Amino acid sequence: MNEEYAIEIENVSMMFNLSTEKVDNIKEYIVKIMKKELLFQKFMALQDISFKVKKGEVFGLVGLNGSGKSTLLKVIAGVMKPTEGKVVTRGSMAPLIELSAGFNPHLTGRENIYLNGSVLGFSRAFMNENYDAIIEFSELHDFIDVPVKNYSSGMLARLGFSIATVIKPDILIVDEVLSVGDYKFQEKCEHRIRELLKENTTVLFVSHSAQQVEDLCDRALWLEKGEMKLLGMTPEVMAAYSGA
Ligand SMILES: Nc1ncnc2c1ncn2[C@@H]1O[C@H](COP(=O)(O)OP(=O)(O)O)[C@@H](O)[C@H]1O
Ligand SMILES: [Mg+2]
Protein backbone atom coordinates (compact mmCIF):
# COMPACT_ATOMS: atom_id res chain seq x y z
CA MET A 1 0.00 0.00 0.00
CA ASN A 2 1.31 3.36 -1.08
CA GLU A 3 1.08 6.69 0.75
CA GLU A 4 0.75 8.70 -2.46
CA TYR A 5 -2.80 7.39 -2.87
CA ALA A 6 -5.81 8.81 -1.02
CA ILE A 7 -8.03 5.90 -2.04
CA GLU A 8 -7.11 2.31 -2.93
CA ILE A 9 -9.78 -0.16 -4.01
CA GLU A 10 -8.81 -3.77 -4.58
CA ASN A 11 -11.11 -6.42 -6.07
CA VAL A 12 -14.20 -4.98 -4.43
CA SER A 13 -17.49 -6.82 -4.94
CA MET A 14 -20.85 -6.09 -3.40
CA MET A 15 -23.69 -8.55 -3.32
CA PHE A 16 -27.23 -7.76 -2.27
CA ASN A 17 -29.87 -10.30 -1.35
CA LEU A 18 -33.10 -9.35 -3.05
CA SER A 19 -36.29 -10.91 -1.80
CA THR A 20 -38.10 -12.36 -4.77
CA GLU A 21 -41.55 -12.51 -3.23
CA LYS A 22 -43.94 -9.87 -2.04
CA VAL A 23 -44.66 -10.23 1.67
CA ASP A 24 -47.60 -8.26 2.99
CA ASN A 25 -46.55 -7.63 6.54
CA ILE A 26 -43.64 -7.94 8.94
CA LYS A 27 -45.23 -10.88 10.81
CA GLU A 28 -45.58 -12.92 7.64
CA TYR A 29 -42.00 -11.93 6.78
CA ILE A 30 -40.61 -13.17 10.11
CA VAL A 31 -42.62 -16.40 9.93
CA LYS A 32 -41.29 -17.02 6.44
CA ILE A 33 -37.72 -16.34 7.50
CA MET A 34 -38.07 -18.77 10.43
CA LYS A 35 -39.53 -21.43 8.18
CA LYS A 36 -36.78 -20.61 5.68
CA GLU A 37 -39.45 -20.12 3.03
CA LEU A 38 -38.32 -16.76 1.86
CA LEU A 39 -36.46 -16.95 -1.42
CA PHE A 40 -33.58 -14.63 -2.02
CA GLN A 41 -31.91 -13.85 -5.26
CA LYS A 42 -28.30 -12.82 -5.16
CA PHE A 43 -27.59 -9.62 -6.99
CA MET A 44 -24.09 -8.34 -7.72
CA ALA A 45 -24.14 -4.55 -7.53
CA LEU A 46 -20.33 -4.38 -7.86
CA GLN A 47 -18.01 -6.95 -9.37
CA ASP A 48 -14.26 -7.00 -8.96
CA ILE A 49 -13.59 -3.26 -8.91
CA SER A 50 -9.97 -2.11 -8.55
CA PHE A 51 -8.50 1.36 -8.91
CA LYS A 52 -6.42 3.92 -7.05
CA VAL A 53 -6.93 7.65 -6.68
CA LYS A 54 -3.85 9.83 -6.10
CA LYS A 55 -3.84 12.51 -3.44
CA GLY A 56 -5.08 15.76 -5.01
CA GLU A 57 -6.66 14.02 -7.99
CA VAL A 58 -10.26 14.51 -9.15
CA PHE A 59 -11.69 11.16 -10.12
CA GLY A 60 -15.03 10.84 -11.92
CA LEU A 61 -17.47 7.92 -11.88
CA VAL A 62 -19.90 7.62 -14.77
CA GLY A 63 -22.50 5.05 -15.75
CA LEU A 64 -26.22 4.63 -16.27
CA ASN A 65 -28.69 4.56 -13.39
CA GLY A 66 -28.24 1.38 -11.38
CA SER A 67 -24.68 0.77 -12.55
CA GLY A 68 -23.38 0.82 -8.97
CA LYS A 69 -21.93 4.32 -8.60
CA SER A 70 -23.62 5.18 -5.30
CA THR A 71 -22.94 1.71 -3.92
CA LEU A 72 -19.24 2.14 -4.72
CA LEU A 73 -19.17 5.56 -3.05
CA LYS A 74 -20.86 4.12 0.06
CA VAL A 75 -18.31 1.32 0.22
CA ILE A 76 -15.50 3.88 -0.03
CA ALA A 77 -17.12 6.13 2.59
CA GLY A 78 -17.39 3.13 4.92
CA VAL A 79 -21.20 3.31 5.03
CA MET A 80 -21.34 -0.24 3.64
CA LYS A 81 -18.91 -3.09 3.99
CA PRO A 82 -18.10 -4.78 0.68
CA THR A 83 -18.86 -8.49 0.35
CA GLU A 84 -15.33 -8.96 -0.96
CA GLY A 85 -12.23 -6.91 -1.49
CA LYS A 86 -10.30 -4.20 0.24
CA VAL A 87 -10.79 -0.45 0.64
CA VAL A 88 -8.12 1.88 2.00
CA THR A 89 -8.64 5.62 2.42
CA ARG A 90 -6.17 8.13 3.83
CA GLY A 91 -7.21 11.34 5.57
CA SER A 92 -10.46 12.95 6.68
CA MET A 93 -13.47 12.40 4.47
CA ALA A 94 -16.65 14.35 3.81
CA PRO A 95 -19.13 12.17 1.95
CA LEU A 96 -22.04 13.89 0.16
CA ILE A 97 -23.84 10.79 -1.00
CA GLU A 98 -27.46 11.02 -0.04
CA LEU A 99 -29.08 14.38 0.37
CA SER A 100 -30.64 13.64 3.72
CA ALA A 101 -27.67 11.75 5.19
CA GLY A 102 -26.31 13.42 8.29
CA PHE A 103 -29.38 15.65 8.63
CA ASN A 104 -32.15 15.29 11.18
CA PRO A 105 -35.34 16.48 9.44
CA HIS A 106 -36.88 17.84 12.63
CA LEU A 107 -33.92 20.04 13.52
CA THR A 108 -33.30 23.45 12.01
CA GLY A 109 -30.58 24.22 9.49
CA ARG A 110 -28.54 25.83 12.26
CA GLU A 111 -28.85 22.77 14.53
CA ASN A 112 -28.04 20.45 11.66
CA ILE A 113 -24.81 22.32 10.94
CA TYR A 114 -23.60 21.36 14.42
CA LEU A 115 -25.01 17.83 14.16
CA ASN A 116 -23.33 17.30 10.80
CA GLY A 117 -20.10 18.73 12.13
CA SER A 118 -20.04 16.33 15.04
CA VAL A 119 -20.88 13.38 12.76
CA LEU A 120 -17.83 14.37 10.70
CA GLY A 121 -15.75 14.62 13.87
CA PHE A 122 -15.49 18.38 14.37
CA SER A 123 -15.87 20.20 17.70
CA ARG A 124 -18.54 22.76 18.48
CA ALA A 125 -15.84 25.43 18.73
CA PHE A 126 -14.60 24.58 15.24
CA MET A 127 -18.14 24.72 13.88
CA ASN A 128 -18.69 28.08 15.63
CA GLU A 129 -15.64 29.45 13.86
CA ASN A 130 -16.89 28.25 10.49
CA TYR A 131 -20.59 28.86 10.99
CA ASP A 132 -20.78 32.21 9.18
CA ALA A 133 -18.84 30.90 6.20
CA ILE A 134 -21.24 27.95 5.91
CA ILE A 135 -24.33 30.19 5.96
CA GLU A 136 -22.70 32.63 3.57
CA PHE A 137 -21.88 29.97 0.98
CA SER A 138 -25.24 28.18 1.28
CA GLU A 139 -27.19 31.46 0.96
CA LEU A 140 -29.69 30.10 3.48
CA HIS A 141 -29.67 33.10 5.83
CA ASP A 142 -33.45 33.47 5.82
CA PHE A 143 -34.14 29.76 6.33
CA ILE A 144 -31.48 28.74 8.82
CA ASP A 145 -33.92 28.51 11.75
CA VAL A 146 -36.47 26.47 9.79
CA PRO A 147 -36.57 22.64 10.24
CA VAL A 148 -34.79 21.05 7.27
CA LYS A 149 -37.82 18.86 6.52
CA ASN A 150 -39.22 22.03 4.96
CA TYR A 151 -36.17 22.52 2.74
CA SER A 152 -36.27 21.78 -0.97
CA SER A 153 -33.76 19.27 -2.32
CA GLY A 154 -31.78 22.19 -3.72
CA MET A 155 -31.60 23.84 -0.30
CA LEU A 156 -30.48 20.58 1.33
CA ALA A 157 -27.78 20.16 -1.28
CA ARG A 158 -26.60 23.73 -0.67
CA LEU A 159 -26.38 23.17 3.07
CA GLY A 160 -24.67 19.77 2.73
CA PHE A 161 -22.14 21.01 0.21
CA SER A 162 -21.37 24.13 2.25
CA ILE A 163 -20.70 22.15 5.42
CA ALA A 164 -18.65 19.50 3.63
CA THR A 165 -16.40 21.98 1.87
CA VAL A 166 -15.96 24.63 4.55
CA ILE A 167 -14.36 22.02 6.79
CA LYS A 168 -11.80 21.28 4.04
CA PRO A 169 -11.71 17.48 4.08
CA ASP A 170 -8.76 15.53 2.66
CA ILE A 171 -11.24 13.50 0.60
CA LEU A 172 -14.49 14.96 -0.76
CA ILE A 173 -17.09 12.57 -2.16
CA VAL A 174 -19.81 14.19 -4.26
CA ASP A 175 -22.66 12.00 -5.55
CA GLU A 176 -24.94 13.89 -7.91
CA VAL A 177 -25.90 16.26 -5.11
CA LEU A 178 -24.91 19.18 -7.26
CA SER A 179 -27.38 18.27 -9.96
CA VAL A 180 -30.34 19.31 -7.82
CA GLY A 181 -29.02 22.83 -7.32
CA ASP A 182 -29.66 25.55 -9.85
CA TYR A 183 -27.14 26.55 -12.50
CA LYS A 184 -25.69 29.38 -10.43
CA PHE A 185 -25.10 27.16 -7.41
CA GLN A 186 -23.51 24.45 -9.54
CA GLU A 187 -21.01 26.99 -10.84
CA LYS A 188 -20.29 28.12 -7.31
CA CYS A 189 -19.70 24.50 -6.26
CA GLU A 190 -17.34 23.89 -9.16
CA HIS A 191 -15.41 26.97 -8.14
CA ARG A 192 -15.27 25.77 -4.53
CA ILE A 193 -14.03 22.35 -5.62
CA ARG A 194 -11.25 24.02 -7.62
CA GLU A 195 -10.26 25.99 -4.50
CA LEU A 196 -10.08 22.79 -2.46
CA LEU A 197 -7.92 21.22 -5.17
CA LYS A 198 -5.32 23.93 -4.64
CA GLU A 199 -5.04 22.62 -1.08
CA ASN A 200 -4.59 19.07 -2.36
CA THR A 201 -8.05 17.73 -1.53
CA THR A 202 -8.88 14.50 -3.35
CA VAL A 203 -12.29 14.48 -5.00
CA LEU A 204 -14.45 11.55 -6.04
CA PHE A 205 -17.17 12.87 -8.25
CA VAL A 206 -20.39 11.48 -9.75
CA SER A 207 -22.45 13.71 -12.00
CA HIS A 208 -25.12 13.35 -14.66
CA SER A 209 -23.49 16.24 -16.42
CA ALA A 210 -20.83 15.05 -18.87
CA GLN A 211 -19.69 18.67 -19.05
CA GLN A 212 -19.02 18.81 -15.29
CA VAL A 213 -17.05 15.57 -15.41
CA GLU A 214 -15.03 16.80 -18.38
CA ASP A 215 -14.38 20.18 -16.74
CA LEU A 216 -13.32 18.83 -13.36
CA CYS A 217 -12.00 15.27 -13.53
CA ASP A 218 -8.48 14.15 -14.35
CA ARG A 219 -9.45 10.51 -14.79
CA ALA A 220 -12.75 8.67 -14.92
CA LEU A 221 -14.15 5.18 -14.46
CA TRP A 222 -17.12 4.00 -16.48
CA LEU A 223 -19.22 1.44 -14.59
CA GLU A 224 -21.64 -0.82 -16.42
CA LYS A 225 -23.90 -3.19 -14.48
CA GLY A 226 -21.48 -3.13 -11.57
CA GLU A 227 -18.41 -3.90 -13.67
CA MET A 228 -15.48 -1.78 -14.79
CA LYS A 229 -16.11 -0.95 -18.43
CA LEU A 230 -13.34 1.57 -18.98
CA LEU A 231 -10.81 3.35 -16.76
CA GLY A 232 -8.67 6.12 -18.19
CA MET A 233 -8.14 9.81 -18.83
CA THR A 234 -11.43 11.74 -18.80
CA PRO A 235 -11.60 12.66 -22.53
CA GLU A 236 -11.07 9.05 -23.60
CA VAL A 237 -13.61 7.62 -21.13
CA MET A 238 -16.24 10.28 -21.84
CA ALA A 239 -15.89 9.87 -25.59
CA ALA A 240 -16.48 6.12 -25.27
CA TYR A 241 -19.29 6.57 -22.74
CA SER A 242 -21.20 9.18 -24.74
CA GLY A 243 -20.76 7.12 -27.89
CA ALA A 244 -22.21 4.01 -26.24
N1 LIG B 1 -29.33 -1.62 -0.14
C1 LIG B 1 -29.60 -2.22 -1.31
N2 LIG B 1 -30.23 -3.42 -1.35
C2 LIG B 1 -30.47 -4.03 -2.52
N3 LIG B 1 -30.13 -3.54 -3.72
C3 LIG B 1 -29.51 -2.35 -3.75
C4 LIG B 1 -29.21 -1.63 -2.55
N4 LIG B 1 -28.58 -0.47 -2.90
C5 LIG B 1 -28.50 -0.47 -4.25
N5 LIG B 1 -29.05 -1.59 -4.77
C6 LIG B 1 -29.09 -1.97 -6.19
O1 LIG B 1 -27.78 -1.94 -6.69
C7 LIG B 1 -27.76 -1.42 -8.01
C8 LIG B 1 -26.83 -0.26 -8.09
O2 LIG B 1 -27.41 0.84 -7.43
P1 LIG B 1 -26.68 2.23 -7.25
O3 LIG B 1 -25.33 1.99 -6.67
O4 LIG B 1 -27.59 3.12 -6.51
O5 LIG B 1 -26.51 2.71 -8.76
P2 LIG B 1 -26.27 4.18 -9.36
O6 LIG B 1 -25.86 5.07 -8.25
O7 LIG B 1 -25.19 3.97 -10.39
O8 LIG B 1 -27.54 4.61 -10.00
C9 LIG B 1 -29.20 -1.08 -8.36
O9 LIG B 1 -29.74 -2.15 -9.12
C10 LIG B 1 -29.87 -0.97 -7.02
O10 LIG B 1 -31.23 -1.31 -7.10
MG1 LIG C 1 -26.60 6.85 -7.53
Describe what you observe in this structure.
- The protein has a single domain, classed as Rossmann fold (3-Layer(aba) Sandwich), CATH 3.40.50.300.
- It is built from eight helices and nine strands.
- It has helices at residues 26-34, 69-77, 109-119, 124-138, 153-166, 183-198, 210-216, 234-242, and strands at residues 5-19, 40-54, 58-62, 84-89, 93-96, 171-175, 202-206, 219-224, 227-233.
- Strands 5-6-7-3-8-9 form a six-stranded mixed sheet, sandwiched between helices. The protein has a three-stranded antiparallel sheet with strand order 2-1-4.
- Residues 16, 18, 45, 63, 65-71 line the site of adenosine-5'-diphosphate (ADP).
- The site of adenosine-5'-diphosphate (ADP) has 11 residues, from β1 and α2.
What's the layout of helices and strands?
Elements: E1 5-19, H1 26-34, E2 40-54, E3 58-62, H2 69-77, E4 84-89, E5 93-96, H3 109-119, H4 124-138, H5 153-166, E6 171-175, H6 183-198, E7 202-206, H7 210-216, E8 219-224, E9 227-233, H8 234-242
Parallel strand pairs: 3-7, 3-8, 5-6, 6-7
Antiparallel strand pairs: 1-2, 1-4, 8-9
The structure holds adenosine-5'-diphosphate and magnesium ion.
